[in-house]
Design a protein that fits this description.
Elements (H helix, E strand, L loop, with lengths): L17 H14 L1 H10 L6 E10 L10 H4 L3 E3 L2 E11 L4 E8 L4 H9 L6 E4 L13 E3 L2 E5 L6 E4 L1
Parallel strand pairs: 1-5
Antiparallel strand pairs: 1-3, 2-3, 3-4, 5-8, 6-7, 7-8
Length: about 160
């Protein structure tokens, strides 16, 4: 698994035939089981600190976007080829609060406001990628909140 990620055909035999695992995964996606699982985990968030960050996900060279095309599947192109970007909000203990998938070339600053929408009464910490350069006040409005850029080399704190 560590060598090849989650290629369905490379699943260990203990999980059963890969086709069965894929069919069940697909069914759970269609029925919203994964979304409900994330929402259930998010109910147990603790503290007033939230962290936001993103990670690039390499898309296989043969991927063509599947049902709905590349836009629906959030497949984009950067210098490194086809990829997507997973944005996440976690609590102070690293528990997932919210996740979003975007095309790889979409900037963090563009996704940031949507990512933190609905978070109230918490302080959010993220890197400078979530800062919007050129904003006249040096702060990016996020609803009624402001995203304040930190000094060079630091993070960004949003007070919500």
């Amino acid at each position: 698994m560590l060598r090849c990620g989650c290629a369905w055909r490379a699943l260990p035999d203990v999980f059963g035939p890969w086709q069965t695992v894929y069919s069940r995964w697909r069914l759970w996606c269609d029925k919203g089981v994964w979304n409900r699982a994330i929402q259930s985990l998010a109910r147990h968030q603790q503290g007033t600190l939230r962290f936001i960050d993103a990670s690039h996900l390499k898309v296989h060279q043969d991927a063509n976007g599947g049902f709905g095309g590349k836009e629906t599947q959030a497949i984009g192109h950067t210098r490194g080829g086809a990829n997507s970007k997973l944005h996440a909000v976690v609590d102070g203990k690293g528990r997932l609060v919210k996740a979003m998938l975007a095309a790889g070339q979409v900037s963090d600053a563009k996704i940031g406001p949507e990512l933190v929408a609905g978070l109230r009464g918490v302080r959010i910490v993220g890197d400078k990628g979530y800062d919007k350069p050129g904003h006249p006040s040096g702060s990016v409005p996020v609803g009624k909140s402001q995203l304040h850029p930190a000094k060079s080399g630091g993070g960004v704190i949003i007070f919500v």
